[in-house]
Amino acid sequence: QVQLVESGGGLVQAGESLRLSCAASGRSISSYAMGWFRQAPGKEREFVGAISWGGGTTYYADSVKGRFTISRDNAKNTVYLQMNSLKFEDTAVYYCAADSGDSDIRSWSRTYYYTATYDYWGQGTQVTVSS
């Protein structure tokens, strides 16, 4: 079992930055692909970014590409989401997720954006961007 705890959310003004952290415990996530998703009020949970188990491959939603960066420190069992140039529409609860079922980069590259791909989820951290 893996437990994920997000932190770093808060209230910021448009144009500012935040860095979210996702700390894992229970077992090492070094062999797990990791993802960030977000959910705004009244909307479905949507993909934000994902990173492969070694960190060599990353994917982003078009809406955050060029502004958000996902990274991981396997020695610290932690994944990060650096969010720059935040916009009002980035306001949401942000969730970290772990995918323990993929070990092939080609298959994962076709499924990283589905919530069903991920086995473990954190409780979420609120990000609010004021315009």
Explain what the structure shows.
The protein is mostly beta strands and 131 residues long. Helix content is 3%, strand content 47%. It has 1 helix and 11 strands. Strands 2, 4, 5, 6, 9, 10 and 11 form a 7-stranded mixed β-sheet that branches. It has a 4-stranded antiparallel β-sheet with strand order 1-3-8-7, with no helix packed on it. Strand 4 and strand 5 form a beta hairpin. The longest helix has 4 residues, at 105-108. It is globular. The termini are far apart.
Summarize this entry quickly.
The protein has 131 residues and is mainly β. Helix content is 3%, strand content 47%. The strands form 2 sheets. Strands 2, 4, 5, 6, 9, 10 and 11 form a 7-stranded mixed β-sheet that branches.
How helical, in percent, are the residues? under 10%
Order of secondary-structure elements = EEEEEEEEEHEE
How many DSSP H or I helices? 1
Main sheet characteristics: 7 strands, mixed
Arithmetic mean of pLDDT: 96
Uncertain regions: pLDDT < 50 for 5+ in a row?
none
> What kind of assembly state do the chains in view correspond to?
single chain
Q: Quick one: overall form?
A: globular
Number of strands: 11
Secondary-structure-based class equals: mainly beta
- Measured on Cα atoms, how large is the radius of gyration? 14 Å
| N-C termini distance | 40 Å
Approximate strand percentage: over 45%
